Predict the structure.
Amino acid sequence: MPERSEVLVTNTTPLISLAAAMGNLDVLRFLYRRVVVPYEVAQEVCAGGAHAFGVDAFQGADWLDIQPAPVPLLAFLQNSLDQGEASVIQTAMNLGLPLVCIDETAGRRVARLCDLTLTGSIGVLLKAKHLGYAISMPDAIAKMRHQGIWLSERVVQFALTH
C-alpha cells in the first residue's frame, strides 16, 4: 500500500466513473489519505435516487469526507461552471487543498486558472495501477463506457499505453 499523504477534492463525474470502472470507490481510499466531497457534489451523486447508478458505491464509502453544507461560491466560479465543479474548486481553495479530481474540460481549465493540481478518473486509475492496485485498464474503460461515460479516443489511448 502506498503512503497516503495527499488529500483530494473530487467532483461528481469521477465518483460515478470510478464506481463504473471498479464497482466501488476503494481505489480512492487506496491512494488518498482524505477524499473531500463538497456538499453540492454529494447532492448531485444522489440526485437520481437510491437506485441511480453509483449511489450505492458512494453511500458505501463511509470514509469519504462529505462536507455538511453548501460552500459560498465566488461569482466567477458560479457564472462559469456547474455547481459541482464550482464547489470542488471553491472548497479546494478554501481549505488550501491543491489537488482536485475533475473530468470535464471547462472545470479543468478553471481549476488550472486557480492554480490547482488536476487529476481525473483515468489519472486516478493509472496512478493506482502503477502503485500496485489490481486494475485492468481495458476492462475499466469498457465498464465505464457500458455505463455511458464518454471518454475521448485520446484519453483511452493514453490510458491503454501508460
Observations:
- The longest strand covers residues 7-10.
- The mean pLDDT is 94.
